[in-house]
Amino acid sequence: MTRAAVVQGLGAMVPPGIVTNAMLAERLDTSDEWIRTRTGIAQRHMVEPGVATSDLAVVAGERALKAAGTDRVDLVVLATTTPDHPCPATAPSVAARLGLAGVASYDVSAVCTGFIYGLYAGAGAIAAGLADSALVIGAETYSSILNPEDRTTSVIFGDGAGAVVLRAGGADEPGALLGFDLGSDGSLADLIMIPAGGSRQRTPVEPADAYFTMNGKQVFRHAVERMEGAARSVLAKTGWRADDVDCFVGHQANIRILRTVALQLGLPEDRLAVNLDRVGNTSAASIPLALADAARDGVLKPGDRVVLTAFGGGVTWGATGLIWPDISVF
Questions:
Q1: DSSP three-state, residue 296
Q2: Which residues are catalytic?
Q3: Do 3-170 and 180-323 share a fold?
Q4: Checking phi first, is residue 306 left (phi over 0); if not, alpha (psi -120 to 50) or beta?
Q5: What CA–CA distance (Å, rounded) separates 152 from 309?
Q6: What is the DSSP letter of 176?
Q7: What pLDDT, in 10s, does the model give residues 255-310?
Q8: What's the rounded Cα separation, in Å, for the pair 84 and 49?
C-alpha cells in the first residue's frame, strides 16, 4: 500500500469582532452594494488590539488536535503572511503553546497559497517516512498590515485561522491527499506586496510602503488562469473528470474569481464552497475555514470528491485533491 498523508481532523476559528460593509462605509468612499457587487463579501472578522497571529493559530491548532483525537504530532507547519515578528518564525511559539515543544516546526510564506504549500510540506514529510503525523495551520491577522484608508484592500481581507491534522495512512483511504500541483512566478512579485520592512527596503519611503498592496485587475486574471490550471492538473493526477468533483474549495478571494474558475472547469455553481461573504479573504486561513464551514453546513459530506486550489503572492499557486473523510470538525 502506498504511504500517504491522510486528513484526520479539522479545526477553525475566527475572532469575535465583526466589521460589516456598512461599518467600513462610514469611513471610506464605498458602500455595502459596491463591496458586495465586486467581491461578494458582506462582513469580515478582525482581532482586537494586542491579539496576534499565534493566538489564532493556537486555538485553531487545539481544535484540530481535539477533532483528530490526539495531542501529539511530529511536525508543525504554519502558513502565514502576518507572523508575530519578522524574526523568529511564529511556528515554534505556536508548537510550544500547544504542548509540542521539541517538535520540528517552521513557517511557510506563500501568502494566499500558503495552506496548500503547508499541506504539501506535511504530506511530503509523511510520504517520505520522516514524520508519522503533522499539524498544518493557516493563520492570519491581515488587519495588522492593511492601510485603513485604502478601500481596495481594507474591504477585502479579514482575520482567522484554520488547521488540519495529517496522519500516515494509505493512498486508498478517504482523506488521503491524492496529488499536488504547485508553482510560482517571481517575475510577478509586485502584484501582491508589502514594499517595506525587508532587506530590500528596510524603511518606508512613503507611509503606504509599510502596508499590503495589490494590483487587483492583474491578480484577477492570473488567479483565474492559475487556479484553473492547477485544478486541471490535479484532476489528471487523480483520474477524475470535472463532473466527478462534488465540492470545489477555491481560495476565498473574490466571488467572481470562484465563479469564473468553476465556469471554465465546467462545474455548476452549487458545487462551490463559499464562505467569503461571512469572513472575507483570510489568505492562508481561507481554505481550511471554507472546509470547516462547508462541512458544518452540509455542503461537504464524507465520500465527496474534493479539489482545493489557491493563488497568492509571490506569485504562487497550487492545488490538491482528496475524498472527504468522516472526521470531526471543531
A1: helix
A2: 112, 251, 281
A3: yes
A4: beta
A5: 23
A6: B
A7: 999 999 999 999 999 999 999 999 999 999 999 999 999 999 999 999 999 999 99
A8: 13
Please give the distance of CA 268 from its chain centroid, rounded to a whole number. 23
Round to whole Å and give the CA distance between 323 and 39.
Answer: 29
Assigned CATH topology for domain 180-323: Peroxisomal Thiolase; Chain A, domain 1 (3.40.47)
- Whole-angstrom distance, CA of residue 288 vs CA of residue 272: 14
Give backbone dihedrals phi and psi of 190, rounded to 5 degrees, phi first.
-75, -5
pLDDT band at 141 (very low <50, low <70, confident <90, very high): very high
pLDDT per residue as tens digits for the range 58-93: 999 999 999 999 999 999 999 999 999 999 999 999
CATH of domain 3-170: 3.40.47.10
List the chain domain ranges: 3-170, 180-323
pLDDT tens digits for 181-191? 999 999 999 99
> What is the tens place of the pLDDT at every residue in 24-40?
999 999 999 999 999 99
Q: Show the DSSP H helices in the chain as ranges.
A: 21-25, 32-39, 53-68, 91-97, 114-127, 151-154, 216-238, 255-265, 276-279, 286-297
